[in-house]
Amino acid sequence: MDNLLLVIIFLPLLTAIGIKIISNLVNELLLNYLTINSALLSFATACGMFGLLLADKFKPIHLELFTWIPSPEILFEFTLDGLSGIMMLLVTGLSVIIQIFSTSYMSKDSNYSKYFIYFNVFVFSMLLLVMSGNFLVMFFGWELVGLSSYLLISFWSKKQSAAKAGNKAFILNRIGDFGFLVGLMLTLNTFGTFNYEEVFSEVLNGNRESLSIIVICFIIGAFGKSAQFPLFSWLPDAMEGPTPASALIHAATMVTAGVFMLVRISPILQFSETGKLIIITAGLLTALIAAFSAINQDDIKKVLAYSTISQLGFMFIAIGSGAYVAAIFHLVTHAFFKALLFLGAGAVIHEMHHEQNIHKMGNLKTKMPITAAMMGIGTLAISGIPPLAGFWSKDEILASTFANGGFYYGYWALSLLAAFMTAFYMGRHWLLIFHKETGNDISQVHEAPKAMVRPLIVLGIFSLFIGFINTPFFHGLEKVLEETLHYVEITHLPEGITLIILALVSIGAGFTGLLLAYLIYIVDILSYFKIKIPLKEEIKELSSNTLYLNKFGEIIFVKGMKSFSRKTAVVVDGLLIDGLVNKISSLFYNSSQKFSRSQNGFVRSYVVYFGFFMLLLIGLFIATPWLLN
Question: Which of 217, 337, 509, 527 could make an S-S bridge to 420, C-beta 3.0–4.6 Å?
């Protein structure tokens, strides 16, 4: 039965290869049949394996494929436990839903088959990452995810903006990957193995040499992949890719890889106070900056991109607080409501003939009622309105942070502010698209095709109910992860009246954010009461330009590095290296030119030279004994 893991992991890769072989021989319908049925088979097998895990109380299943390096022994191996099982179901399940949506969204595209090749390679890469049995196999999946996401982001590479976005994502992820790679080398040097269980056992038994450095290196890798400050600027630009690919990459898979990895190494991470402080601080900064940036975005997808960055920040806050179950819980709920929001945005873009400016939309609920309702569910879920999914997971993060006490109260208060801002900008997003009367011509807009609407309905249902897998009354997800986190100290929720008060405050923040969005953008309360916001335009510029962080990065790292490279090329390469080589060569050339004059071809000249050097030699023999005495 363990070999079924290979079916789950490698079936998407075989599908990609099969599509490549037959792409010129079949039409879209047959290609859809192949890729969707393959995804369904992978998901069904994943469900079966998860059932076996459940029956055995989530004891890990190991599969050793072959020995990669004999000494030290490094295996190509896979592990299926509660953590990888959750990710396995998410990746395979959402890939089915998103591929069904893609068949309609990408129809008639000139690179239709290529899209599904890249899509399936991405799914394979992500499964390789999450089901890896050691750090080295994880790294292979980690890098393949980066490659396949680059291919999807720059899918329409004839557009200069898409090509630049792909390059930016690839380069910024390489910065994080360098940290991951250094962490790998330090792990092997310190523990002599890449195997998870052996490394964790060594740490738990007291071998904590270079532990904080190793943890920080892995954290840098997580920051790149999960778009945390300061490595988050690639994610909004990645919206240049096809919208279904955005749903896959930015909802449940690639961007959550960093969160998954940090929870995987939690037996190490729990002993690094420095590492946890870095994580929670970066997570809070990311959540706040991204939420502030989303408030004034006009692109329907960029609002969701900044929202994703902010929600990932909440997951990092949970990890930094020691609430590892809460981090994975929010990862799961976020996967569904964010995939719903992205696919809903894709349906709107499709029907608006690829218009993405939300100010050119408005009142679309009359033309696209199902899409409006489903995106409304997603908006309420991410805003933390009960009993939808986002309420349970986000509330658990906030309450767990509060439960740590001390300076964590400050982190809780600022996280609550980020939650309020989330509700505000997501309320604005939905209202401007579906509710506000703008006078724009939407007469040609219709409800999206069934192949798009049905996935939205499925995701909408999950966004309503998936949160019940881990409530204060039923700790289902905690039981799934119990074996994985057996030796990890986990922050639990406060009890009694404290939890109720925290929940009410969290709900109040969500409702207040949505109400404020309604009052400002629909009622126009600012104009009605003639309220003037100080420095309104300056604040708007700061928000829409992400505090000018991208521009600073462009000036310092892009233009600055180009200028430095040019000066280095001129001074070091041109003057120093080339100059030295040219000087030496010219010295030999000039001296050879002078000596060559003695070679004139006249015998009498050679006799004179011979006689001169003979006399010099005789003089040397005569003078040598005298000099020695």
Answer: 509
- Residue 297 gets the label, from left (phi > 0), alpha (psi -120 to 50) or beta, of beta
pLDDT per position as a tens digit, 75-88: 888 999 999 999 99
263-300: string of b/e by CB count within 10 Å (b at 16+)?
Answer: bbbbbbbbebeebbebbbebbbbbbbbbbbbbbbbeeb
Whether 501 contacts 337, CB under 8 Å = no
* Segment 290-328, tens digit of pLDDT: 999 999 898 899 999 999 999 999 999 999 999 999 999
For 507, the 3-state DSSP assignment is helix
Asked if 236 contacts 302 with a C-beta cutoff of 8 angstroms, the reply is yes
Task: Give the Å distances, CA to CA, from 527 to 190, 423, 532.
Answer: 64, 22, 8
- Cα(560)–Cα(477) distance, integer angstroms: 48
Question: What are the counts of helices (DSSP H) followed by strands (DSSP E) for the chain?
Answer: 27, 4
The model scores a pTM over 0.90: no
Cβ-based burial of 494 (10 A; exposed 0-12, middle 13-18, buried ≥19): middle
- 135-153 and 211-225 helices, crossing angle to 10°: 20
Residues contacting 236, CB < 8 A, separation 6+: 302, 305, 306, 309, 546
Measured CA to CA, the distance from residue 619 to residue 347 in angstroms comes to 101
Reply yes or no on whether the pLDDT at 2 is more than 80. Answer: no
Q: How far apart are alpha carbons 291 and 296 in whole angstroms?
A: 10
| Amino acid identity for residue 528 in this structure | Y
Between CA 184 and CA 65 the distance in angstroms is 21
Type and span of the H or E element at 423: helix 408-430
Which string of DSSP letters, residue by residue, matches 164-201? HHHHHHHHHHHHHHHHHHHHHHHHHHHHS--BHHHHHH
> Which tens digits make up the pLDDT trace of 9-48?
999 999 999 999 988 888 888 998 999 999 999 999 999 9
Name the residue type at position 77.
E
Here the tokens at position 155 are 């899918």
Where are the alpha helices (H) located in 106-134, listed in sequence order?
112-130
Q: How far is CA 98 from CA 31, 32, 123, 270, 400, in A?
A: 15, 12, 11, 36, 33
Residue ranges with strand state E in 321-391: none
Question: Average pLDDT of the chain?
Answer: 87
Q: In three state form, how does the secondary structure of 76-105 look?
A: EEEEECHHHHHHHHHHHHHHHHHHHHHHHH
pLDDT tens digits along 542-585: 877 777 777 776 777 666 667 777 777 777 766 677 777 777 77
What letter represents residue 395's amino acid?
D
As a whole number of angstroms, the distance between CA 389 and CA 381 comes to: 6
* Amino acid identity at 329: F
